[in-house]
UniProtKB/TrEMBL annotation:
It is a multi-pass membrane protein. Its main location: membrane. It is found in: Cell membrane. InterPro entries: SecG. It comes from Polaromonas aquatica. Belongs to the SecG family. This is Protein-export membrane protein SecG. The keyword Protein transport applies. Pfam families: SecG.
Amino acid sequence: MNVVLTIVLAVQMLTALGMIGLILVQHGKGADMGAAFGSGGSGSLFGASGSANFLSRTTGILAAVFFACTLLLAYFGNAQPRATGSSVLDGLAVTAPAPATAASGAAQIPGTSVPAAGSATVPAAPAIPASGAAQIPTK
């Protein structure tokens, strides 16, 4: 099964690159007007209008192959056996966070010391700045 997925993915990449190249080589709709007045279009590899049919048909074929490869990759991606349940979230393990202690919070602040396990001293909370009218500076 892995070999088939690799082959389909390689074919999809090659068709994508081929389509990019063919689309960039094709002329726009405005280029036909210049060819009608003899701007050198008749001296091309495919003739005066032969390149439009060849390039557009090849682009269409490559687009169909790309679409088929995309559908095959989507089918094989959904055909993989899953664990119990039908959702991706069913397989996740639920873990409860560790209970927070006063010492664990203070240990995370650099430059502070954590009291010993036997002592009852808990560091004081930082002062909360005043709110409202007390924040307005006076002259």
